[in-house]
């Protein structure tokens, strides 16, 4: 409350109210009461409850001494409003109730100038005025509180939206980084092997050289399409073109066969219920596992095994190459783990007595949608 508003309203309102209600017994005394209450009102911002008590004591004293002729609580309206706005509504109600009870006792039993009906009418008018003032003040406080809560809630929602947006952007960047790694790494590894084969066979077996070059060109074309899709996502926010998924596994195997490895693709169970997101993850896991085999394992044979269950898929990529004693998660293995973990699955990668094995177990709910 403005520190000048309450004193000004009190200084004007008290004489006007006494004049309207017939309580102006002496103009000098009326102005004195108004001035004293206005002086108290100047401290409402700092001591609202103390000012209310002093104001009521002043009003009761003036009424008891017949210095003013009306009003038990309304001359202290500014103090009641300030106390209610400060959050002390109960204190204001109790103080007002005590003042009104005192007024009933004084006008009804002590002061013999008026009968009981007059006392009830005038004190009842004060009570109605007080109830209206406190109700309005409480409504104002409730509205301000609601506005603050709504403002805080909107601010929190905005902050949460910004956090969600940053999280989504971070996840998109990580996903794009994984895709770039998978596409580029696989392409360079397979194309490099095919180029080496073509170079070795160029003089003695031109047909084999041409076949290797065609396979390298095929791998390069697929990689260019994948990279274009990723660039479109970065530039325009357009949805990425879908990865081949389960239907592309045989093509992956064919590319690696052309590099001189024997690749077997075995599937057990019904693949029809595998959701698209799971199929994409399977494709990327197999792609990265084959890339690592071509680049690092010095293997002769790779066996890809998919086992479909009603609500999960298990993928094994087993080669017969040389397995490292200690497996360090580079970008490739880390990317595979992240893909599988994002779908609630788990991935292991390590050596065995037969070579190196990557195994991913990916659960899914049938309600996720199918390929």
Can you describe what's shown?
This protein is α+β, with helices and mostly antiparallel strands. It folds into two domains: 5-152, no CATH class; 245-371, 2-Layer Sandwich (Heat Shock Protein 90), CATH 3.30.565. It contains ten helices and five strands; from the N terminus they run ααααααααβαββαββ. Strands 1-2-3-5-4 form a five-stranded mixed β-sheet. Helix 9 (276-297) links the parallel strand 1 and strand 2. Helix 8 packs parallel to helix 9 (276-297). The longest helix is centred in the middle third of the chain and has 86 residues, at 116-201. The radius of gyration is 43 Å and the shape is rod-shaped. The two termini are 66 Å apart. The mean pLDDT is 82.
């Amino acid at each position: 409350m403005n520190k000048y508003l309450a004193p000004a309203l009190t200084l004007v309102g008290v004489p006007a109210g006494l004049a309207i209600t017939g309580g102006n017994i002496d103009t000098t005394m009326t102005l004195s009461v108004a001035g004293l209450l206005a002086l108290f009102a100047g401290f409402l911002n700092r001591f609202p409850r103390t000012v209310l008590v002093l104001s009521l004591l002043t009003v009761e004293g003036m009424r008891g001494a017949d210095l003013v002729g009306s009003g038990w609580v309304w001359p202290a309206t500014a103090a009641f409003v300030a106390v209610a706005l400060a959050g002390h509504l109960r204190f204001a109600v109790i103080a007002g109730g005590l003042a009104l009870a005192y007024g009933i006792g004084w006008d009804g039993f002590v002061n013999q100038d008026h009968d009981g009906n007059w006392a009830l009418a005038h004190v009842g008018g004060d009570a109605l005025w007080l109830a209206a003032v406190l109700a309005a003040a409480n409504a104002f406080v409730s509205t301000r509180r609601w506005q603050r809560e709504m403002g805080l809630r909107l601010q929190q929602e905005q902050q949460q939206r910004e956090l969600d947006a940053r999280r989504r952007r971070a996840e998109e960047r990580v996903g794009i980084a994984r895709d770039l790694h998978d596409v580029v790494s696989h392409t360079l590894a397979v194309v490099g092997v095919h180029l080496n084969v073509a170079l070795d066979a160029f003089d003695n077996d031109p047909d084999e050289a041409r076949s290797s070059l065609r396979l390298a060109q095929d791998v390069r074309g697929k990689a260019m399409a994948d990279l274009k899709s990723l660039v479109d996502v970065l530039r325009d926010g357009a949805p990425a073109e879908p990865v081949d998924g389960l239907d592309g596994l045989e093509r992956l195997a064919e590319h690696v066969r052309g590099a001189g490895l024997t690749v077997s693709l075995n599937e057990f169970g019904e693949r029809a219920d595998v959701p698209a997101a799971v199929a994409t993850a399977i494709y990327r896991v197999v792609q990265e596992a084959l890339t690592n085999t071509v680049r690092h394992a010095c293997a002769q044979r790779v066996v890809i095994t998919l086992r479909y269950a009603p609500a999960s898929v298990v993928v094994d990529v087993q080669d017969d190459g040389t397995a490292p004693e200690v497996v360090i998660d580079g970008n490739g293995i880390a990317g595979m783990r992240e893909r599988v973990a994002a779908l609630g699955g788990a991935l292991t990668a390590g050596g065995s007595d037969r070579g190196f094995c990557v195994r991913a177990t990916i659960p899914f709910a049938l309600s996720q949608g199918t390929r």
